[in-house]
Structures are given as structure tokens and as C-alpha cells.
Amino acid sequence: MNKILGSLPIRDAISTSFLSKEWRYKWRSMSDLIFHRDSFSSSEEWEPSSFTRIYLSKVHRTLFLHRGDIRKFKFHSSGSEVINSEIDLWLDYLVVASVQQLCEHLEEDGTSLSTSDEFWNDQSNFSSSFDNLKHFDITNVHGSKSELRFIKYILGKAPLLEVSNIKIDWKTIAFGERKMGDILIQMLSFERISSTKVIIDKPESN
Q: What is the pTM of this model?
């Protein structure tokens, strides 16, 4: 049953609850949660603002109803900045769920991963860490303060991290080579509590 659920898109896996009593809520123990832009509905069916709100609420509800550990959490942004409070809650939940693989895919249009100042203030008084995280992958980073802080947080809270891939969307980085250099220096200076090598894509040469 778990193999079947794992082979289905998240929307179809959730829908198996309506098949029979035997299937009801079995999806809640799925080890892999993978969310794409069209996981729940097509972006063409809604206005951009409505689509983003619906998409994020469904991701949030899925996490809220999930039970047990999570092996892999993969999230594709919806084309606009992700709401602060959502990311805050997701990170707290993923720590509790002992996530092993964390993959964040941002859009190429400048979409930024955003977390609130309150979240970081709480972390200074709370020793939460990703004790089981082994794989971290983030794509289309745009160099925002919040994104860099998020990456620094993950690298400093994952003692078992083995793979860390950071792919920067250099086309969206303003202020040219100086800004690019600043971002690289910051990332390479982040403290790591594991022996993982941080792999950062180099800017394309002209």
C-alpha cells in the first residue's frame, strides 16, 4: 500500500482516502511529500494571487494532517513570495518529523523564500536542529537576506548532512560581479556542523 501511495502525485494519494475504509487516511503516513505548482490544481484555473493562496493552504493542511517521519520534503514555489508564517511553521514541523531530504525549488522570476524575523528570534532560544537531515538542495536562489539566512540556518543545524547543493539564479542578481562575489563569500563562510561540502553553481562566464 505504501509503495502505491509513494508512486502517486500527492493529490491522487490524498484522494485514495475515498476508495474504502481500508485506504482512509493511509496517505498521512507517506514518507515522501513532493509538492509541485500543479499538485492540486492547474495554475491556469485561477488568478495568480488566488492560486498562490490556495496552493500554500493545501501544502500547509497536508503537513498539518501528516503523521510520522518524513524522508523527503520537496517544495516548488508557486510563482510569488512564499508567506512568512507558512515557512516558519513548515520548518518547525519538518524538524519534528525528522526530515532526511529537504529540497526547495524557487522560481526563475525572482520569487524569494521568505521567513519572518520572529522565527529567527525564536531560534536563538530554542535548540531545534535537523538531526536526521542528510540531503539539502535549493534551486534558483536569488541572494535575498532571508534566503541566505535560511541556508546558513540549515547548514548550522544539520550534523549528519552529506549532500548540500545550492543553485543560484545568477541572472537575477543585481549589481553585477561585486554582488555575486559578496554572495559567494557569505555562503562559503557559513558555519557547518557536518563534514559536508557545499556545492555552489558558478556564474556563467560571458
A: 0.83
